[in-house]
Amino acid sequence: MEFTNVKLEVENRVGYIRIDAPPANTLSSVTLSGLSEAFDYVEGNSDVKVVVVTGAGKFFVAGADIKEFTNAFDNPKAAEQMAHTGQKLFDRIENFSKPVIAAVNGAALGGGLELAMACHMRYAAEDAKLGLPELNLGLIPGFGGTQRLARLTNQAKALELILTSQFIDGKEAERIGLVNHAIPLASLMDEVKKTAELIALQKSAVSVSASLKAVTYGLQEGQEKGMEKEAILFGELFASDDMKEGVGAFIEKRKAQFTDK
C-alpha cells in the first residue's frame, strides 16, 4: 500500500511504514501528509498491533524540506503554523494507542530525529548519524525536539547537542539513552522485527494500549496524576476477556490465548 512518499506493508500483525522520498527522505509537507495517512490506516486496522517506522535507502529522514522554509520568510505566523503541523503529527504518534518503533537505518537529522523521538521505542544502526542541526540555519528545532530530547536524555545533554549542532552515532545515542539499542545495520530490521512480533503475537492489544496510556500520561502530567491513571487502567483491565484469560492460563500452567478484547 502506498501513500504520498510513504509505503506501508503489514506482516504478522506489524505495520511497516517506510518513508520513501528520495534522495534524502526529507519531511516535506506532502511527505508529512502521506505519513499522517499511513497512521490513519494502521490506527483503523485491527489486524495491525505494532507499527514500525523506517526510511528507504541510506536515510531514515534527513530533516525537513528546507526549500519550503523560504515560503515563510518574513511571515512568522506561517512559520509557526508549519511547526504546529509537525508537532501535531508527532504528538499523535507519541500518544498512539499502538506501539510505534523507530528503526533508524541511516541519518536521522532535524525533523528526522524529532520523528524518531516521538516514537515509543528507537532502534538505530550503529553508524547512523543523529542530530538537531537547526541552529546552523539560524533556527531551533520546531517539531518537538527541544522538549523530547531533554526528556529522553537530560537538560545539559540536550542543550549540548542543540547548541553545537553536533551529530552522534547510534552507539553514542544508545549510551546516553536516546535509543534503546544500537545494532549493526545488516541486523537492524531483524532485531526490530523480533521485538515488534513479540508484542504483536504474544501480548494483548488491550493491556499494551493501557501500558502506553499509563506511561505517556505520567510523563506528560506528572507522577501523582500518572499513578492515579495507572490505578484506573489497572482496574479497567479486570473487566477484559484477556485479563481473565491471562490469569486463568497462569493458574492452569498453559500459554494464554489472547483475543484482544
From TrEMBL:
The keyword Lyase applies. It comes from the Bacteria. GO terms for biological process: fatty acid beta-oxidation. Pfam families: ECH_1. InterPro entries: ClpP/crotonase-like_dom_sf (IPR029045), Enoyl-CoA_hyd/isom_CS (IPR018376), Enoyl-CoA_hydra/iso (IPR001753). Its EC number is 4.2.1.17. Gene3D superfamilies: 2-enoyl-CoA Hydratase, Chain A, domain 1. GO terms for molecular function: enoyl-CoA hydratase activity. CDD domains: crotonase-like (cd06558). Keywords: Lyase. Belongs to the enoyl-CoA hydratase/isomerase family. This is Enoyl-CoA hydratase. It comes from Aneurinibacillus aneurinilyticus.
